[in-house]
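Known limitations

Structure tokens in this collection are predictions and should be treated as such. Users comparing against experimental data should check residue numbering before alignment. To illustrate the layout, the record for Small CPxCG-related zinc finger protein is reproduced below. The input appears on top and the generated tokens appear beneath it.
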Amino acid sequence: MGTQIRISREDGSLPCEVCGFRTMHVAQVVADDGTVLGRTLICTTCQRSRHRPESAAGTEAPPDEVPAG
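Generated tokens:
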């Protein structure tokens, strides 16, 4: 399955330094066997805006340039 990030719904949230929304959470990094490997900060707003569908992963959009000619 792989390593998971778990965000607790009971814990509060903090303002994000990037987007400014109160959507920064302390999350647990959890191994396959349930062992907590550590903690990290996750902004659910910023992560949502960076999300790419798996079908588009690895493909980049062409640059927005018009060829000189």
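For this record: Confidence is low (pLDDT under 50) at residues 55-59. The first helix runs from residue 44 to 50. Please report discrepancies through the issue tracker.
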